Amino acid sequence: xxxxxLFDAFKKQFDVVGVIKSTTYIKSVDKIQVSEIKPPYxxxxxxxxxxxxxxxxxxQEQAVTSFYTFGTDYHQVLKKRADKVMQxxxxxxxxxxxxxxxxxRLAAQIAGxxxxxxxxxxxxxxxxxxxxxGIVFVNIEITEEITHKVTDSCxxxxxxxxxxxxxxxxxxxxxxxxxxxxYNQEKQLLTHDQTTHNYCLFGCDICQLVCPxxxxxxxxxxxxxxxxxxxxxxxxxxxxxxxxxFNLKYQNMAYLxxxxxxxxxxxxxxxxxDKNHRYDHLIEDSINKVKAPWYEALAREFIKK
Length: 305
What we know:
alpha+beta
């Protein structure tokens, strides 16, 4: 099977596709002197699927997550689309979407899906940074790669650096632990500064919203990413429902993958910053049920105020 056949098959399901040899990826990894597990198959199909920009706001009764989580969980969507393509190709393959040991952004750069922006995201000329990335490792040997030429860059623009409230983005690089989208997904006790700056139930959109490369982008909606009504999470559900019932009510949402307790901790930060005490009775009750010190400490501190 030729690389063009692979490209054409995946282009029916994805917005941007590149086909590269695993050896090309390995050489790039070696150049940056990073130790990494070698890909399982000789060919890597690098994929990009567009997601829309939609802005919702939290209020006294509901909390909102980053808009990349709106609609059906993108992990499920990308896997289903890739599986559909591979059903007809009938060779061994494996799919990587986020949770795997390979660098999707490096692979995307090699394939020309876009350039690596100062906001640490892959930015595509047509779609901006509103792209979900994935890799399909395929047990096919190819002789030619299919990549895209990328001539764009951030240039002298520093808007995301200036806009980042935690100074996670700098001219010299990225301090991951300072990033709101990083720390509000970690199972840890948040500092006062982290709590104060957290504004989202899960993730952060600031560096994308200020990016000039995203102007006029993010309007196209794939059917799977239509709003489901579960983009806003009720505080009453968050603190009142059991994990089983909560996961059932909000099933198929990408923000569930770190677990309900992380969302509860982040919900507390929103209530703290808003001085919203209408759910204190549910929070007090939750302290006896949730066995996570990093949640309990913040909950007890809030209840005392």
